[in-house]
Specification:
The complex is a heterodimer of chains A (319) and B (326).
Chain A (H helix, E strand, L loop, with lengths): L1 H28 L4 H5 L7 H11 L6 H13 L13 H36 L4 H15 L2 H15 L18 H35 L2 H8 L4 H29 L3 H6 L5 H10 L3 H29 L7
Helix pairs in contact in A: 1-13, 5-6, 5-8, 5-10, 5-13, 6-8, 7-8, 8-10, 9-10, 10-13, 12-13
Chain B lengths: L5 E11 L4 E12 L4 E5 L6 H9 L7 E10 L2 E2 L5 H7 L4 E4 L13 H12 L4 H14 L5 H4 L9 H13 L5 E5 L7 H18 L2 E6 L2 H7 L2 E6 L2 E7 H6 L4 H8 L49 E4 L2 E3 L10
Parallel strand pairs in B: 3-8, 3-9, 6-7, 7-8
Antiparallel strand pairs in B: 1-2, 1-4, 4-5, 9-10, 10-12, 11-12
Helix pairs in contact in B: 3-4, 3-6, 4-6, 6-7
Classes of the chains: A mainly alpha (319), B alpha/beta (326).
Chain lengths: 319, 326
Amino acid sequence: MLTYIIRRLLGMIPMLIAISIFTFLMMHLAPGNAIDAMINPRIKDLAQVQKTLEAQNGLNLPLPVQYLHWLWNVLHGNFGFSFSQHQPVSSLLGPAIENTLILAILAEILILIIGIPIGIMQARRPYSRLDYSTSIVSFVFFSVPYFIFAIFLMYVFAIHWPIFPAQNAVGTGPNSGSLIDHIYHALLPAISIALTSNTVYSRYTRGSMLDVSRQDYVRTARAKGLQEGQVFRKHVFRNAMVPIVTQFGFDIGGLIGGAVILEGLFTYQGMGLLTINAVSQRDYPVIMATTLLIAIGVLIGNLVADIMYAIVDPRVQYN
Amino acid sequence: MAEPLLAIRDLRTYFISKNTEVRAVDGIDIDVQKGQILCVVGESGSGKSMTSLSIMRLVPKPRGKIVSGEIVLDGQDLLKLTEQQMTGVRGNDISMIFQEPMTALNPVLSIGDQITEVILRHRKITKKEALHRAVEMLKFVGVPRAEQIVREYPHQLSGGLRQRVMIAMAMVCEPKLLLADEPTTALDVTIQAQVLELMRKMRDEFGTSIILITHDLGVVAEMADHVVVMYAGQVVESVNADELFEQPLHPYTKALLQSIPSIDADHEVLYSIPGTVPDAASFPAGCRFAERCPLAQPSCFEKAQALREVRPGHLVRCDLVEEGGV
């Protein structure tokens, strides 16, 4: 297992390089550059100033050279300097990752603790009135974009009853920056995500459990005299978890990318907001860094999915 | 004859949906004596498997339903027990093994887990003792390296071994009755013989009665003390095994016996019964076998046949068979 993980991690390196080259080219193919975004087009000697700034930032060199510079620096832990925010990229990334991780983990926990029990409940009494009514509600919630919930929640719990903050990832005051403060700020966006996304898990759980409950070994479990609850907990649920755990791994990867619209709405300083701002300002070093991190997140998420798969299903072995 | 261990009286198991009523088991009487191996024979769709699932009260819900009848085990009507009481009977007084050892074991639980689970459900002992008992039982059913096997998973075992594990699991609480639903159909011929031998050993060792469901008359000849032939949800013939092969009386039984291939037979074409089992949703009014019966008379199509004792201990559902049996 350990050799498998190491092999997978090493296999990520060429993939990451390919992704970074692709991002790099795409950025430079787009019209305009960071200098255009930085300077006022009405100043005197526009062309001269542009040239000087480009030279200062190394943007006049051939693209392959620029890329190799970037790669060399990254390998030395240096992600460069943000054009638009005038700070080292690494000092922007740190808080953004932290905030996104908190939001992602909180959202994922909410998704699981809402989605899976609903799915189990539906699978225990399939085609019942309870099953149909909860399914309809789930689908309605799933069809609504999460920013609608975000606006609604913001109105109710931040403005009408000001219990939760409507903005920012951290507050001010004595608790500022503590975990509790982080969670407090991430709660409304996390609930917005969970309200729609839990449907994925409730449907998966329901379908998977119904599938499993038709299997021969479930009949065997009943023939052994196990109580119905035990049959479901030990035999149905364990097997039904196999596809769900895989989905969970993929989700983890996806959530690292941040929820762009949601972070925008709550001005939540996560990866999504950082990336979208950087793109609009052609802030190459920041774009490269966030893309790389998001790619790493997705790849690690897939690896986690595969590892979890092997843990829940003894038939899966990596050798 | 002594009081039977299991007495099934007029058992009816139907599958009911909005417009149809499928009579899978339609008024069955079966007696199983202590220590007896009783074979239930019949084609697919004759209601054999539903009979065994009815005994376990594991008929697929919500459509399948035991409509009426009695299933008396040791003087207690199983159909009158609550679901909770019934779970105490399953795996303890009555056990069951299934046709497909490949799918009947849970792929994500270890063998040891799956066997000890039965013991822990029905006996008040510790996990360690239960595991010890599981290993003992695996050794008894001839599983090699039993100490390691308990830590392994079903996919690591061969089909024959899995069926041995199933038998160990079924027998570990020493039930009074073992239901085996075509336990050897999915196995190689050599393994089949071993598994049948093992089941006989179980009967001899624990005095367990066995209901063996099969469509393989070879298995019947090998194993049965008593044979019940089923057709279209009903018992058509019930007799001890020797007499069945010497003097089958029902036309269906005769046809079944004719369709066994024989090594020294002259004719090359194997006999097969024409037609198929009638649709269980709309049985004919008369004899259910009449359509396929070579001896059918016009009266057979009109009058439902009753199961009669034509000779001592030999029951037949055919009016053409005369008293004394011809």
